[in-house]
User: What shape does this take?
Amino acid sequence: MRKTIVLASVLCVGLATTAAVAHFQVLIPSTDIVGAEDDKTVNLDILFTHPMEQGPVMEMGKPRQFGVLVGGAKQDLMASLVEKKLDGKAAYTASYKVTRPADYVFYLEPAPYWEPAERKMIVHYTKVVVDAFGAEEGWDALVGLPVEIEPLVRPYGLWTGNAFRGIVRKNGQPVPFAEVEVEYYNVGNQVKPPADPFITQVIKADGQGVFTYVMPRAGWWAFAALVDGDEKMKSPEGEAVDVELGGLIWVRTVDMK
Ligand SMILES: [Cu+2]
Assistant: This one.
């Protein structure tokens, strides 16, 4: 057991020392669209990992915030978090029953994660939108996270090959030329990246903080806007270190058939 954990953390640091350093907070629901005839329960998978490589999984501390924004009101869902182990690391699941037509914006503030290879703390504020019963309203509502992507494209009901666009906001303000990392949730490692730069796509927002990316495959995609935190944080080693703040959104594409 202990051996596995040590090996996994070594692996993670190993990856981090290459150019492809891309941890992503995962927040993936069992569906992004709940129809009238569908099961009303949405199950969410919450883990911290490398989506394209499907590992290693990194330890999550207890999240600081987990909730859902519906019709302009926030609901605290911390009590619904269930911890589980994935490859020996703490991850979470949660279930939520949708009750009325609305867009449900699920959001998560994970505990700060210490990345020794980069000597910084990482906090990835993450959200995902689930549409219930054809409401199709509220998907662009902002949660008010310190770093957040405002979708300019309705973030569900997307075809493979659609473009996703969004505004990177920090404390509500657009971030010109913000860096956005994009990864595909590569279930079963079906996609074999031919070289490291294919693992994480790196794009930049324009002068208004707006970015665009065309998604070439069906499945879940993560957009991670990365900015520097204004204040330092204390690392587990007790020193004041830089903070990477991420604003993530997950969206799903489906093939035209
Ligand atoms: Cu990692």
Notes: The pocket of copper (II) ion is lined by residues 12, 23, 50, 58 (CB under 6 Å). Helices lie at 2-17. Residues 2-17 form the longest helix (16 residues). The first strand starts at residue 24 and ends at 29.
